[in-house]
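Would you mind writing out a protein's amino acid sequence and the numbers that encode its backbone to help me picture the idea?
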Amino acid sequence: MLIIAGHIEVDPARRDEVVAALQDLVRRARETAGCLDLAVTADPLDPARVNTFERWESTEQLEAFRAVAHAPDIGEVLGDHVRLYDVTGERSPFA
């Protein structure tokens, strides 16, 4: 399993526009085989921050989606703090 998580920084005046521009991409990804979860959200505290979280079954499924994703141009990204993590196991954090 892969997890892609972090945040990007954009002009605060454009943050909500950026999140809205990515809604269709999020919807299509969630409908794709191998996508376990995907979210792009406006941070509730920082007006320049857009949080991202993705969970995929495999690298192959992620790459297959990216090949046809046609991500929208969101304009200038002021900071990129998104990272990919390889996951070897999972368990409930509440157990």
In short: The mean pLDDT is 97. Residues 2-86 form a domain with the Alpha-Beta Plaits fold (CATH 3.30.70.100).
